[in-house]
Design a protein that fits this description.
The protein is of the alpha/beta class and 378 residues long. Helix content is 28%, strand content 19%.
Length: 378
């Protein structure tokens, strides 16, 4: 839960519906709904946004109950060994494993566009650098983006007393429509609900990830990039509209560091140019999986991993070109589709990967050291 605990702003609400925000256990017992019932917290499968704090506490309780043997260590280095892999922990301890599952989440994959990269972090930062926003009270801050991260953090900045500006290339913010239950039968047929949202495209992504895997690479990359584009939750609309300036249809024409702050030149198309004097810019510009950004991968190991758009190319069992090295989560989205970017994808991922490892052990007992020795790189 590191990304959620340290890299998301407190007070945020999840865009995923309650039923789509559960972690996966084989019996399907400890759902988010069950946790909220036990804890006396408000919950609905649809239509009641889940607070970040509720999701984090649920995730930590899930681990305590179902994976109590988890060891909290940071992996400093993963390199190839004989056989398998050698892992060095930040404590200096070394481990050997025949298999490694990299479940690095999104922490290392924060993306800054070129025009905002290379500046001191006290002037320009990614949204993932901010879990607390009180330090911006009274300061002029610009948020770049039109998706849920941008809108969420802009709203929270405004509520924390910052002088906030929202800047986006898009002409308008595309808020999700409020969820309605029960839905008319025809609506359910024409646009079925899925864990990724409403519509047949999302339903295919959740129900047929192996079919997605069989599609041409160019098609897969295009779908992952375009499907489920920037769209904040419906519940954020009243918290942002009319609350602070929004510079829509605007691109950044230049950045100037001056007097301990920033001059941000804006190109507003037919509306002309303008300049904002700011103390800070927060880029809510999303995440892009790129294995070069993972500091714990040895350079020679990284060089052996075949990639597409900087993410590992995976088999139908999540294995990359280096035998015994598996990838899940955001890093697997280019292979299995948008499903892999969300908690709702945990069921498919866990069942597919563990099923493959169990079958390989039955066929090849010599690999029996794999599961007990495996550790997850965070």
């Amino acid at each position: 839960m590191l990304s959620w605990r340290r890299h998301m702003p407190r007070g945020m609400l999840l865009k995923s519906e309650g039923f789509a925000s559960s972690l996966y256990d084989p019996e399907g017992f400890f759902t988010l709904g069950q946790y909220c019932k036990d804890a006396g917290l408000p919950y609905a499968d649809v239509g009641n946004p889940v607070p970040l704090e509720t999701f984090v506490s649920y995730g930590l309780e899930f681990q305590r109950r179902l994976v109590p043997e988890l060891e909290h260590h940071e992996v400093a280095l993963v390199r190839e060994g004989e056989p398998g892999f050698c892992l060095t922990l930040s404590t200096g301890e070394t481990l050997r494993a025949r298999c490694v599952v990299v479940a690095a989440g999104i922490t290392h994959f924060a993306y800054l566009p070129p025009e905002l990269a290379g500046y001191p972090p006290e002037l320009i930062s990614h949204s993932s650098a901010h879990s607390e926003l009180e330090g911006f009270r009274g300061k002029p801050v610009a948020v770049i983006g039109a998706g849920s991260s941008a809108v969420d953090i802009a709203a929270l900045l405004g509520e924390a007393g910052a002088d906030v500006h929202l800047i986006a290339r898009r002409q308008a913010i595309d808020f999700h429509s409020p969820s309605q239950e029960p839905r008319p039968l025809m609506d359910r047929i024409l646009a079925p609900r899925s864990g990724l949202g409403i519509g047949w495209r999302s339903r295919l992504c959740t129900d047929a990830p192996l079919l997605f895997h069989s599609m041409p690479e160019s098609f897969r990359l295009k779908v992952v990039k375009r499907h489920l584009g920037p769209a904040p939750g419906w519940f954020m609309k009243e918290r942002v509209m009319g609350r602070f300036p929004m510079h829509m249809g605007t691109v950044i024409a230049g950045v100037e560091v001056k007097n301990g702050g920033l001059g941000l030149a804006l190109d507003r198309g037919s509306a002309g140019r303008a300049t904002l004097e700011l103390a800070h810019v927060i880029a809510a510009t999303g995440y892009k999986p790129a294995i070069r950004r993972l500091p714990f991968l040895a350079e020679d190991l990284r060089a052996r991993i075949l990639t597409a758009d900087e993410a590992p190319i995976l088999s139908r069992n999540f294995e990359c070109s280096v035998p015994g090295l598996f990838w899940v989560g955001l890093a697997s989205a280019n292979s299995f589709g948008p499903l892999a970017r969300f908690a709702f994808g945990a069921r498919f991922t866990a069942r597919r990967l563990t099923g493959f490892l169990a079958a390989s052990l039955r066929l090849n007992p010599a690999r029996s050291a794999c599961p007990p020795s495996s550790i997850t790189a965070q």
